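Sample entry (423 residues):
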Amino acid sequence: MHTQALIEEEQQAVEEFFKTSNKGVVCATGTLAQGLNLPASAVVVNTTKQHNEEDLPKPLSKEEVINMLGRAGRPGLGFQSIGIIVPQYPALYDQEKNTYLLDEEYRDFLERIDAVVPLSSGLINVIETVASLTDPNEDPDKLTFLLHAAVKDGLVNEDIINKTVASYFVGSEPINYAIQKCNLWLENASKDTKMQKVIGLAQKSAIPLSLAKILVETFDEDQTSMLLALRSATTEDWIRWFLNNLKKLGGEFYKTYIHSVFTNCDLLVGFISSWTSGKSILEIAQLFYSLEVGKEPVPGKRSNQSAIAKVIHVLNDGKRNIVHLANCYLYLVEELNSSRELESELPNELLMLSTCLNLGVLDFEAIKFRKKGFPRELSIKFGEIFSSPYDVKNLIFMWSMTNEIEGIQVSERLRTALISINS
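Predicted structure, serialized as tokens:
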């Protein structure tokens, strides 16, 4: 089984088993349709509806279904592949005609999936939207894509736009209007120092202008300067600095830009503090439950509504947003350091912040073990004992002779990690 409710190591184990199995069957949610390179000889789509956040059934588009079927077959893996679609309630009974008629919603699925599909481009909507703007300042986020994809040296590069598929679908007039309006907005923004920071952050971090503006306005330059001057600042100090910046943003920001679970500051701060200090998923779930998120966690029992499931969802979907925000703040620190002409380089404790948030450990030595595949708890423990994963050679030798490590239970994950280091 492959779902988003599985932690990363579980997903990897399922994928590896399926790849190496001759007659493997994997049951999956839409996660496998998101471009994961896990080809199969046959794919069965057992429903053409998907429940949304309100738990209401929503029809899948033809493109979504075809993407799922796209997991079937790859060149070099076989002569043919099979795709099967099983619609839910595809026919309706017509009392007047005394027969069953195919629901309109499902007629698209009868078309050959290798039939001609109209070519389109998402950039068309961007160009037409920007061209129709009366005042870009009213909604600058609509300029975001052009800023990310086509702005060079402070202006929109017309050659980049003209090389896209969109240029074949829209006339030159809308393109010229869009470029003119974006360039005029950029020219006016260049006179505003704070807006230049916002644009720089948005381009560097690939985030909307509205989000970049919030981060720039809440960034504490004085506290950051003091911490930079304190050369003895530890990773824990920079974690607290990061949390202090996040505390200014509020619950609506957390729900919108990090994860819907984070409705208040206590939840977010508690999660980050627990995760980076090496707390287990169960311990973090107990924290969530104490803050009224999810049902009571029960080890070994899975439920989509349990606090454990909520933690796993945050690790799968929210953690990367936290890491991304840390990188955004890192850019702001770099700009601050540069603007004040400080000659000192940024401390490693700050540069490693996003890595610590991603891997869930604070110690540099523990990070080395995490990158080798060790579980977080053991990485922290080994990081305190050994200066490098390669110093574990003697421990591995003893383990290979006795099949045990004094004071440590050798799980399958740890066994795999020890073998990878030995190789």
